[in-house]
Amino acid sequence: MGFEQSPHEVAVYRRGNGGNALLVGIYVDDLVIKGIKEEKMEAFKEEMTAYAKRVIELGGLTDCNPALTPTKDRLKLSRDSTAEEVDATQYWRLVGSLRYLTHTRSNLAFIVGNISRFMQQPTTEHLQAIKRILRYIAETLDYGLHYSRLSGSLGCSTISLARILKQWSLGWTASPLWLWRRIPSSTSEASISE
Questions:
Q1: pTM of this prediction?
Q2: Which of 15, 86, 88, 130 is the most buried (most CB within 10 A)?
Q3: What was the pLDDT predicted at 97?
């Protein structure tokens, strides 16, 4: 994707220079996107959404019923499953695609890691778990919070993004800041406030 890791912060990446620069900060289940030009940020979000849609299509769930969570409560998968085996190659493709997707959807890392344990002999039970994840992705394609600068300065409380922006000469400009929160929660507070 052409991103360069910050030498000052391991969870911050940059693509482009000057007015075309785009910064992406990753913190637990958040993805913070900052750029001088809003169209660059929109293009990045569209790239990620398009990839997620391709993964859903790969799983054959284009018009699926969405799921509100990536897994069922107390789901227990086993290597000793007696369920019918499925095409291992297709299972590998789906798991690999989901593993790549966890770079921008870090809240999926645990469940994707869990289903990755069954690559040798995947069964319909394991494939159902993948389909549940894909249904969740379909539900959350457009989740995100948009913070536009009205007045005053914008501060960060979760990562020192302001320091990184200053080091890369991006500063807080009139351009908006995007925060993609991957896990919707009524008790969560936004990581960035004005």
A1: 0.68
A2: 130
A3: 92
